[in-house]
């Protein structure tokens, strides 16, 4: 199975990217290519919806880590949502994305983003807790 990538129109400073299929040595360059224009726009948050991702290899993890590093250089965050159990296990093993950036659903990720924005407006920018 190949990789299908859907990049949604950015909503404000957030961009949603959905992955379907396998992110591996044969498809990671597809993801890098799809994320390149998103990353140069310096979004505050890039949300990866992995609900339809069936497999991820170390090459896929490297692509995600590279995107995270690019975002962090400009103060942006990478958020990962809807991980299948096998994908969650890989993330647990390699700790490629801090666990506070992995969410069980888009609603949980949106709640986090809403809280972070509210904290900025209130002058409290520490993001260690979001509940």
UniProtKB/TrEMBL annotation:
Gene3D superfamilies noted in UniProt: STAS domain
Annotated Pfam families: STAS
Gene Ontology molecular function: anti-sigma factor antagonist activity
Domain STAS, first and last residues per copy: 16-113
Top-level taxon: Bacteria
Alphabetized NCBIfam families for the sequence: ant_ant_sig
Family: Belongs to the anti-sigma-factor antagonist family.
Protein name: Anti-sigma factor antagonist
